[in-house]
Specification:
The protein has one domain (37-127). It contains 4 helices and 4 strands. It has helices spanning 3-23, 50-62, 79-82, 84-99; strands at 39-43, 68-72, 106-108, 115-118. The longest helix has 21 residues, at 3-23. The chain starts with a helix and ends in a 9-residue tail after the last strand.
Length: 127
Amino acid sequence: MQKGRESKVRERGQSSLRTFHRCLPRADASAQASLPPLLLTRGSDDVSAPETALAILQSAQARGGSPLLASFAGSRAMAHVDSRAEYNERLLQFLDRVDGTLTRRAIMLPGTMKPGGSVLDATVGVE
């Protein structure tokens, strides 16, 4: 990536981070802010700086949240596409942790309601 373009992408990321911070509820002594569960995902080769993800996590923690970071080796900004099986499994684990219910790990064959395999099988349903 060209140096000028890279700095513009990082500037936009910082702008997004500032917006994110403004949207978070503030914790104060009189009323404990309750943040929703947060799973922040990023690819190891993502164009956003790792420091941005860490700043978001620290900000959420400072406001009483317990955010999680899921990083996907070899993925860029679209880890849900680049690392489909791992992404699905990590998301389901997060949801299971949040609601305390084990989510079914089978997926349907395309165009049917028949079980076609596990989310861990990245080839099921791919054409």
